[in-house]
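Dear Dr. H.,

I hope your travels went smoothly. While you were away I took the liberty of generating a structure for the chain from your last submission, since the lab meeting agenda had it listed for discussion. I wanted you to have the full record in hand beforehand rather than looking at slides cold. The sequence, exactly as received, is reproduced here:
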Amino acid sequence: MAEPHESRVYSDLAYLYDHVFGRAFVDHEHEVIEELGFRPGQRALEVGVGTGISLDAYPPYLHVTGIDPSSSMLGHAVSKTRENNWGHIELHSGDAQALEFADNSFDWVLTFHVMTVVPDPRRMMSEMIRVCKPGGRIVVISHFASPNPLLYFFGRIINPLTKMLGWTTRLRARDVLDGQPIAVERNRRFSTLSVHYCIIARKEA
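The corresponding predicted structure, in token form, is as follows:
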């Protein structure tokens, strides 16, 4: 069976992503971005920028770098930056599990709905922490498996279906957070009925 990141959603169907999946995600992403304490001159990295549905939420005084492995998805993001003359944003092809940036390069490292897609999410988290400056923030929005044993069991049952659509339902937040050199400042669901979490962590000095 194909892995989540190999789903056609991220290649052949990229042109439908904003309309089908983007509508479900964009409000959460914008809500979080707009409440973060960015400062002029800071650098931010968005890992897995996709079609760029989050890009218009970043302030123009923040230098933003976005990466994505899907050329189809990235093409849509590039078009948005050109159409809107977003000179503060640069986009590149890149692998979330092997970031091509030096240690301690960014004040902010963000990722939205990508953790449950990559083959090795813990390695992705470690890479995000590596390129973040000491004292900088890592921001993650993602679906994570419920800590409730019954709901987790249900997630395992439907996992073969969700993998075909592009994500796993078996990843728990603790799988990527435990043992990392970070201090978690926020780890909460968007609502009591939501399966999507917002995690904000500070990289330890």
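Two observations you may find useful: The mean pLDDT is 83. Helices lie at 14-35, 71-84, 121-131, 149-165, 173-177.

With kind regards,
E. W.
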